[in-house]
Automatic annotation (TrEMBL):
<keyword id="KW-0059">Arsenical resistance</keyword>
<protein>
    <submittedName>
        <fullName>Arsenate reductase</fullName>
    </submittedName>
</protein>
<dbReference type="GO" id="GO:0046685">
    <property type="term" value="P:response to arsenic-containing substance"/>
</dbReference>
<dbReference type="Pfam" id="PF01451">
    <property type="entry name" value="LMWPc"/>
</dbReference>
<dbReference type="InterPro" id="IPR023485">
    <property type="entry name" value="Ptyr_pPase"/>
</dbReference>
<feature type="domain" description="Phosphotyrosine protein phosphatase I">
    <location>
        <begin position="4"/>
        <end position="129"/>
    </location>
</feature>
<dbReference type="InterPro" id="IPR036196">
    <property type="entry name" value="Ptyr_pPase_sf"/>
</dbReference>
Amino acid sequence: MSKPSVLFVCVHNAGRSQMAAGWLRHLAGDAVEVRSAGSAPADQINPAAVEAMAEVGIDITDQRPKILEPSTVQNSDVIVTMGCGDACPYYPGKRYEDWKLDDPAGKGVEAVRPIRDEIKNRIEKLLADLLPAR
């Protein structure tokens, strides 16, 4: 069996989806293929998201916002949308989840920490479902 692939999608691919991808890479290692994209990517990752993740030992400074391509959705097993579900193409047979999370755009690190922590909780649940034997 090949490893599962997870795609995180938010509008700017600069905050929530980048933090989710960072958590999944950190917690799953090489057991899951991790992707992220945005329907309208920003120029750079949200600095408060970078700082909040650095506080828990996860470096996302090497990531860049990417445009959501239909092929990326098609090649993913699980698609997690975060506030832009309408922009994400739908393919039968894929698992879709929509996570309602506050948008960290324009917020300081104090406001981003609870979002980061909520994302971690959701990633842990997703991982337990994807890799139950871990």
